[in-house]
Design brief:
CATH architecture of the largest domain: 3-Layer(aba) Sandwich
CATH superfamily of the largest domain: Response regulator
Order of helices and strands: EHEHEHEHEHEEEEHEHHEE
Number of helices: 8
CATH class of the largest domain: Alpha Beta
Radius of gyration: 18 Å
Strand content: 15-25%
Structural class: alpha/beta
Largest sheet: 5 strands, parallel
CATH topology of the largest domain: Rossmann fold
Mean pLDDT: 90
């Protein structure tokens, strides 16, 4: 899942980005509201982590402009401890959830997973399809009840497909959501990871739609 993190404190941003990457997210960062607003407008993200006290453009202004422009990606707002007016303002501006600083990375990851599931119309942290069980919270996959060992990127790709059963997903879309900005990207990487998932879960799980991309049926 591809996350946009907008946070101006370099230590907090670094800790969050590293923690979310370890939790299976592809993370892209902005350190001010103006850049974050542009990135959220021009790129597609599964969710956004947004600090409110940003330079150049406040987090509230970023959020209000996104919502006024019809951008519906889930937004998790970071607020200061005990600042209930900030929480209210953020929710009224269109935030989907908030978390108070200081925070624990596993809670941020869990809240992001919950927001992404809800935006996809899914309520449970456990996704099931054709004998596959994916626990998005634990980062664990089973096939017919047996655990399947997956690399971080295989797990990320499976998660992305499981949220989009029956939909055609382009190679470019998979690339964007598999890698964080700045990671090296091999030209044939997507085919390699799709092939690995087919070997582990069944050759007919992911279909190639010629000229368009892939679809999990």
């Amino acid at each position: 899942m591809r996350i946009l993190l907008i946070e101006d404190d370099p230590e907090i941003a670094k800790r969050l980005a590293e923690g979310l990457y370890s939790a299976g997210f592809a993370v892209e960062r902005a350190d001010n509201g103006a850049d974050g607003y542009i990135m959220g407008t021009e790129e597609t993200y599964d969710a956004v982590v947004l600090d409110l006290g940003l330079p150049q453009m406040s987090g509230l202004d970023v959020l209000r402009k996104w919502r006024a422009g019809g951008h519906k990606m889930p937004v998790l707002v970071l607020t200061a401890r005990g600042s209930w007016p900030e929480k209210v303002d953020g929710l009224n501006a269109g935030a989907d959830d908030y978390i108070t600083k200081p925070f624990h990375i596993p809670e941020v990851a869990a809240r992001l997973n919950a927001l992404i599931r809800r935006s996809a119309g899914l309520a449970s942290a456990t996704l099931t399809h054709r004998g596959i069980t994916l626990d998005t919270g634990a980062g664990m996959a089973l096939l017919d009840g047996q655990p399947i060992e997956l690399t971080a990127k295989e797990l990320r790709m499976l998660n992305y497909f499981m949220h989009r059963i029956g939909r055609v997903v382009s190679q470019a879309e998979l690339t964007e959501h598999l890698y964080s900005l700045g990671e090296s990207r091999e030209s044939n990487t997507i085919e390699v990871y799709v092939s690995r998932l087919r070997r582990k879960f069944g050759a007919d799980l992911i279909k190639t739609i010629r000229g368009l991309g892939y679809r999990m049926d």
